[in-house]
Amino acid sequence: MSTTTQHDTRRQAARRWLLLTAAAAAWAGLYAVNEVFWTWLYRDALALDITTGWPSMLHFFCYDTVKITLLLTGIIFVVTVLRSFMSVERTRALLGGKREGVGNVLAASLGVVTPFCSCSAVPAFIGFVASGIPLGVTMSFLIASPLVNEVAIALLLGLFGIGPTLLYVGAGLVVAIVAGMVIGRLRLEDQVEAFVYETRLRGEVIDSTAGLTWADRLAMGREEAASILRKIWPYLLVGIGLGAVIHGWAPADFFARYAGPDNPFAVLVAVAIGVPLYSNAAGILPLVDALYAKGMPMGTLLAFMMATVALSLPEMILLRRVLKPRLIATFAAVTALGIVTVGYLFNALL
After folding, report:
1. Please, what is the angle between helix 298-310 and helix 266-274, to 10°?
2. 3-state helix/strand/coil string of the chain
3. CA torsion, points 258, 264, 267, 273, in degrees to nearest 10?
4. At a CB cut-off of 8 Å and minimum separation 6, what does 102 contact?
5. pLDDT at res. 83
6. Per residue in 313-339, pLDDT tens?
7. Which residues pair with residue 192 across a beta bridge?
8. Which pLDDT score, from 0 to 100, does residue 256 have?
9. If 243 and its partner were Cys, which of 51, 129, 168, 290 is the partner (CB 3.0–4.6 Å)?
10. pLDDT for the residue numbered 71
């Protein structure tokens, strides 16, 4: 490489990191002034009472929309760059040959950092099982990946802080590990469609992240953040809108009375509602935030969110291509039982 080429390469790298630093500073500045700006606009400039009614709804909607958009773009970008060092192929190689127990723990942990969504459920399942990974271990991965994802972590951290976020991550991993172990012990391999076992993966595992430069990884972060925003913005606006309505008009004691700690069936009702109510973390968390402000216990809210995110109806429909109804029903029942247990446990401790 010539001296001129080396100089150009270094200059491009310096420019790239300078732009990244400026973007990070702009992100932090916008996040810091977001609430201050909307409060000034509605309360001071327009002289509205933002504690109740439609002014409260508008204030919440504008503030939360900007806040959640900033959280999504910033944290998804960072997580994608970090996650670019861990490919699905490498995950499959790490899980290969692991026995149940250790394999379930490793699978659930890897599910948090490995790119996976409902649309990739079928190919991921086929690839794992065809590689010889036990069914229970594979199920731990499939449960943890959508449940404990970067969007949920980013929004929980921004809305509730580090404590509830760590509780959610820990509970999600426990549910994924235990559910996978239970499914593995039930010996339901005959409930997997026969063609899955007939699939054979030939050759060595190819790491799709090998050879990526920092420019490639940063580009992946930008593209992933933009892609996720394009996919989820309708859910985002609907979720924030529902949260704004609850925040502005619902009576303060309504949810505390019917879904509070005094109702022994509150967690069961939350999970029963959350299972068919398909959404994702971006759509459901603004609603969770508003319900929390109205007095619903954290355990009930986390159970509601986990049921909505982990037991996605579209994902189960996709998995029907590779799983028989009995295994799908078992997967849903075991996961729901784990979520209900987590909800009651958190309500008792918090």
Report:
1. 20
2. CCHHHHHHHHHHHHHHHHHHHHHHHHHHHHHHHHHHHHHHHHHHHCCCCCCCHHHHHHHHHHHHHHHHHHHHHHHHHHHHHHHCCCCHHHHHHHHCCCCCCHHHHHHHHHHHHCCCCHHHHHHHHHHHHHCCCCHHHHHHHHHHHHHCCHHHHHHHHHHHCHHHHHHHHHHHHHHHHHHHHHHHHCCCHHHECHHHHHCCCCCCCCCCCCCCCHHHHHHHHHHHHHHHHHHHHHHHHHHHHHHHHHHHHCCCCHHHHHHCCCCCCHHHHHHHHHCCCCCCHHHHHHHHHHHHHCCCCHHHHHHHHHHHHHCCHHHHHHHCCCECHHHHHHHHHHHHHHHHHHHHHHHHHC
3. -50
4. none
5. 66
6. 666 776 787 888 899 899 888 988 988
7. 323
8. 59
9. 290
10. 76
Chain length of the chain: 350
* Average pLDDT value for residue range 201-221: 65
Residue-level pLDDT at 33 = 93
pTM for this one?
0.67
